[in-house]
Amino acid sequence: IWIARCFEATRQRCCRLEQDGRRVREQLSRVEAERAALEVKLKHARNQVEVEMNKRHRAEAELEKQERKLQLVFEILMQEPWGSREQCSVLSALAGRRFAASLAPGRRSSAVDESCQSLLSHSDISYDRTEDDVVRS
Fold first, then answer.
1. DSSP string, the chain
2. Does residue 125 lie in a domain region?
3. Which of 34, 73, 80, 97 sits a CA distance of 20 to 30 A from 125?
4. d(Cα 114, Cα 120) in Å, to the nearest integer?
5. How far apart are the C-alpha atoms of 68 and 131, rounded to whole Å?
6. Is 12 inside a domain boundary?
């Protein structure tokens, strides 16, 4: 009777362990599916960041090109012999105010709120994917 009770206790323990094993395998499957979904989201987010960075670089290059053209127009207007002294002083004031701030090296568009620039600067973004590699067994 004692041996039968020990065998029954062992059998019940084995049944509990099997149930725990099934529950943990199901949980593992759910977590792996969630991880795969998050990896897809991360990939899409990285691609979107890259697209937006490229758009921004193109926009900044176009802005610099247009500002150079505008500066050339101001310079040409300043050199016109027919311009009055008052016109030259107005153009000088406009040119000085506009180009002193806008043509500074490394300037960013003021239309973008960059209060978090140190946290979100595109130059700080690392595309090193070695951190994403997960050891899979």
1. -HHHHHHHHHHHHHHHHHHHHHHHHHHHHHHHHHHHHHHHHHHHHHHHHHHHHHHHHHHHHHHHHHHHHHHHHHHHHHH-TT--HHHHHHHHHHHHHHHHHHTSTT---TTS--TTHHHH-GGG----GGGG-----
2. no
3. 34
4. 8
5. 42
6. yes
Domain that residue 70 falls in: 1-97
Each residue's pLDDT, cut to its tens digit, for the chain (137 residues) gives 999 999 999 999 999 999 999 999 999 999 999 999 999 999 999 999 999 999 999 999 999 999 999 989 888 887 877 666 677 677 777 766 655 555 444 555 444 444 444 444 445 455 555 555 544 44
Six token digits for residue 62: 């176009």
Question: Can you tell me the distance from the alpha carbon of 64 to that of 128, in angstroms, rounded to the nearest whole number?
Answer: 30
Query: How far apart are the C-alpha atoms of 73 and 84, rounded to whole Å?
Result: 17
Report the number of distinct structural domains present in the chain: 1
Both tokens of residue 16? 């509990």
Does residue 103 form part of some domain?
no
Q: What is the pLDDT of residue 119?
A: 41
